[in-house]
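Hi L., both proteins are below.
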Amino acid sequence: MKKLVLLMMLNVCIMSADDLAKKIEIGIDEKIGQTIPLNLEFYDENGYLVALKDIVKKPTILNFVYFRCPGICSPILTELTAIVNHIDMEMGKDFQIVTVSFDEREKPELAHAKRDNYFTLLNKKIPGESWKFMTGDSASIRQLTNASGFMFKREGDNFLHAGAIIVISPQGKIARYLYGTQYLPFDVKMAVTEASEGRTGPTITKLLQYCYSYNPEGRRYIFNVTRVSGAVIILFAAVFVVYLTVKPKKVQS
């Protein structure tokens, strides 16, 4: 009877964890080791329709933003300029950046303006083709974001979304996710190196992204009590099951 109860509790924990994973509507559903569809076409900042396979020729930092974002998109792009400024790798040779807008209403003209703005923050000269600012139609955007595990939701004129960059190999294989709006140059360099070798790496800071969600009204991240409480309950239930399973029995005299 005791074993049956333990098995039932363990099953509930597993089901609850699966339910939490399946309910990812906003955030990152990691696809490490999977390949993005390189046949998809997007407009570059100059208005030319190009396929990803013609752009992704080297390790690539892929990131999703929308250019009119009132929140974390600008800090992410600003941080990427800081990475380019400080990383001891050559932009355009060792790696490149592809920024894709997930708002289908945005057009190449806006992408070009944003590109010019962020290029002024660079203290080194980089090849113009080494950082692309892309826009596209809703179907192509959804295919790419779904394949990359980037889950977002429209909220009026804005979007609920996570902050992250995705490092992919020259073949389009997802190697690493880096979360938040700040990234250590060493972490980026390691992710780019892994991608160049076709290797993948674990995500260490995923919990930070999981615990917080974006509040478009306050334009900031707020602590998501429901998610964290659910995760804590599942964790304690699992620990309790393990404790009951391995607890030594008293020796009767």
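That was the first. Here is the second:
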Amino acid sequence: MDFKHTSVMLGEVVSALNVKPNGIYLDCTLGGAGHALAIGRRLTSGGLLIGIDRDEDAIVAARERLAGLACAVKTVRANFSELDKILDDFSVDKIDGAVFDLGVSSHQIDTAERGFSYMKDSPLDMRMDRRQSLTARDVINFCDEDRLTKIFRDYGEERFAKRAAAAICRARKISPIETTGELVRLIEQTVPRTKNGGHPAKRIPGKSHRS
């Protein structure tokens, strides 16, 4: 699988971990497995690498990329909030290090049908874990105006959250908002660009729906 993602501060992160050859390490947001691979290459057969991600595409790609490492490798499709249970399942009571690279991966943004990109017209989705039923379409079309305002303000840090929420609620009374393109056009007409904030659609609902 062509899962492209550039790992953030790869050298600095691995150096800071000071990997022990027989240690136990976690990549809690596995993604393209860049951090995990760099850690795994420093582990011997006595080491253990555990990778966690909600995205099935990431898990499949990571298993391919991490194959052949000398250490034991465990990949789990789950949310890192389930970390305690995952460690219990593997009878691990102590780890030597962990990595959390939070955010959306390049693969998710570049894959149009995932609905993460404001630059590509596709169905509103934005689910990191596609086993979940709730989509960005549901949020945009069924949350009330106060809830949308709170989402945009608290998670997107959007100054014009109330204005955007009101515009969405007016538009969906005419017809449901189905695609990223429809939402982007609506936001462009409603929310002004800020000097340093770039395209306003980056903030709505970019940080609001990462289920």
